[in-house]
Amino acid sequence: MADNSSAVPAGSSPWQLARTELRHRTSVRVSLVLVALFAVMAAAAPLLSRLGGWSPEEFDKSAVDPYLGGLPIGPLGGVSAQHWLGVEPVTGRDLFARVVHGAQVSLLIAFAATAIVVIAGTAAGIAAGYFGGRTDTVLSRLMDLTMSFPSLIFMIAMMSVARDVNRVVLMTAVIGVFGWPGIARVVRGQALTLRHREYVDAARVGGSGSWQILSREILPGVAGPVIAYTTLIIPGMIATEAALSYLGVGVRPPTPSWGQMIAESVAFYDTDPLYFVIPSLCLFLTVLAFTLLGDALRDVLDPRGSRK
Known about the structure:
Layout: H1 14-23, H2 26-43, H3 45-52, E1 64-65, E2 71-72, H4 75-78, H5 95-131, H6 133-148, H7 151-161, H8 167-194, H9 198-205, H10 210-246, H11 258-265, H12 273-301, H13 303-306
Antiparallel strand pairs: 1-2
């Protein structure tokens, strides 16, 4: 087998070495293609639904048979030139439009919640690891307190009692609140080792303030693990949103969501299996792609963490 390191110029930075290593991994290339596909699908959901000719809330009663309990007319759940992936039973709503708009909702909540988790967790972890003492004690106890909550039960309770609120914003906030301690612990451990490095001591002796040291010395040192663990957090966020929507406490109809579609398709899995397969396959491929990408990034950017 050819040595991939020969393609790396001498004196390359760690980020250049990481990019070169990732390019030679088939799983990374496949994952990036899938991630890009679903991201484009989510971003272009309104355009794609217009190309399909149907909005996600539009009913097509002519596509379902009222004498057979509202089952789609035609093979494979009503797949036709008018409905590319078929239609929902009973309502006749276009499944292609529902799936692409469901991707938009699911990925929006996942990315926004991940952003909250990463920003809050990184800030808390750096502060706890660098300053130590009372700051570390308070933040560490807050991490322990947050992680001790039965988060899924609390999320279900919060989403159930909240009525006249934006469900997407509420889900993003609730998921983000319970997710930050995990990455905060990782960053804290990295910051504890970095604060005693020679270049940090040199910056401190040179008159740099705490903010300058944190932003210029500590933050770049934890960037690799943070990036790696961010891609591992995203699939968990997608699955959490799908689980809440599946349980009926997520986004409300007619707003489409993959978890909501899977929940509604359970009653028709034996008579219209494609209705269950399509959103389930989208959810599976998205979570798998981010998981494989996150594993590869963790191996390259945080090799010590991957061996733990």
